[in-house]
Amino acid sequence: MTHTSESVNETERLAIDSVPTGLFIGGVWRETAARLPVEDPATGRVLCEVADASPADGLDALTAAADAQAGWASAAPRERSDLLMRAYRLLLAETERLALIMTLEMGKPLSEARGEIAYAAEFFRWFAEEAVRLDGGYMPAPAGGSRFLITRQPVGPSLLITPWNFPLAMGTRKIGPALAAGCTCVVKPAEQTPLSMLALAEILVRAGLPAGVVNVVTTSDPAALMTPMILDERSRKLSFTGSTAVGKILLEQCARTVMRTSMELGGNAPFVVFEDADLDEAVEGLLAAKMRNIGQTCTAANRILVQRSVIDDFARRLTERMAALPMGRGTEPDAVVGPLIDTDAVTKVTELVADAKQRGATVLLGGESADRPGNFYPATVLTGVPDEAAMCHTEIFGPVAALTAFDTEAEAVERANDTPYGLIGYVYTESLRRGLRVSEALETGLVGLNQGVISNPAAPFGGVKESGLGREGGFTGIDEFLETKYIGVKI
Known about the structure:
Layout: H1 10-17, E1 23-25, E2 28-30, E3 35-39, E4 46-51, H2 55-73, H3 77-93, H4 95-106, H5 110-131, E5 137-140, E6 146-154, E7 158-161, H6 169-181, E8 185-188, H7 195-206, E9 214-216, H8 222-231, E10 237-241, H9 244-255, E11 260-264, E12 269-273, H10 279-291, E13 301-307, H11 311-323, H12 343-358, E14 362-365, E15 380-383, E16 400-406, H13 409-416, E17 421-422, E18 424-428, H14 432-441, E19 446-449, E20 464-465, E21 468-469, E22 482-490
Parallel strand pairs: 7-8, 7-10, 8-9, 10-11, 12-13, 12-18, 13-16, 15-16, 18-19
Antiparallel strand pairs: 1-2, 3-4, 5-6, 6-22, 11-21, 14-15, 17-20
Helix pairs in contact: 2-8, 3-5, 3-6, 3-7, 4-5, 5-6, 10-11
């Protein structure tokens, strides 16, 4: 492993050194000649280097998963459940180490990283409980003479592709149900944030993971690595979290073998504030929905629609709160606004803000790149953002709140739905009737009604339209890794 000594202090270096840096294939850590540097987005310095897998390495990982599939599928549900529960406890026990690793490679403040560890662990606990509750059915045929026996079986070897913004939780959200259902898997973490997943693999080994059940391959060239595995008929499931553009490419590839897919793709979340809303609660909800993970989430409030009679008051309160958020490296005790993931992210946000200003938006806070090292962009509030602004049609993925006024409920719903995306929407109103009416009218898979963060392992997560297919979490999350089989029994 290669380190840049001046990039980290002793505590940080110990955390990084605790992470294996090879490929994890068939229960063995494997090194590669090619190496992938992992950078600290707050400084741009290299933290370490990890293995850079080739397509051949990927196929080896798939072979390991395929070879282990029958044994894992036949394992008792309680055995699978116990493994996940042991991993759950280990994750919680190592919260501080894992949170520091996550903050160093991804940038989010330590307080948020700790929260993600708890969130990630909860997926293992939830699906440990689901593993022993897989059901089926038995009934007489309507015409008599036979019985219908319905059972559910694991789909088979699964390919899991995770994003950089939640490098641990998005892994456990996929690995948990896969293992609970009896599926083996190959995990490909994002190239920017491989350390959290490698650390998780080591924890799973300590929890008693059988060889080949979970394999982890890191790479600088995801398309070259994944394409042969996707086209290989031994792969029976793909679960992907990432951009809609990449998701469409993967769906085309999966169609060649009619592979089962789950897709959690991009969003363009409306955040609707009606004039009867509790404005203080709405501001706090928006801060949670907008600033979580420095705005780099698919559930981030993207288009903030505020009823005209209260938009000035709302904008003033929001600006005061946003201005008070300290910016800094995620390891700094008070930091709330950490760095964006890379320079491309800063460039994108800068260009989106410049476009909005050019089209007539007013800057109430921020609006210019931060004058400091690292991939920082300051908390920004814009008002009067026109619908034709680019940021109204693409995920901002940064700490920028874009406000626009509306007049009527019908207008708010129409504008909220005027997007090809449909992951989540937010509604703030004190009227129960209006809240339910608008929530049901929104073309989204998720709605936060007077709540800025609603993700929960016990609830189904997923979108409609171009925001995805399938659901993760909740009672339906394990269904994505199970096939239903009907057995007709003659009596």
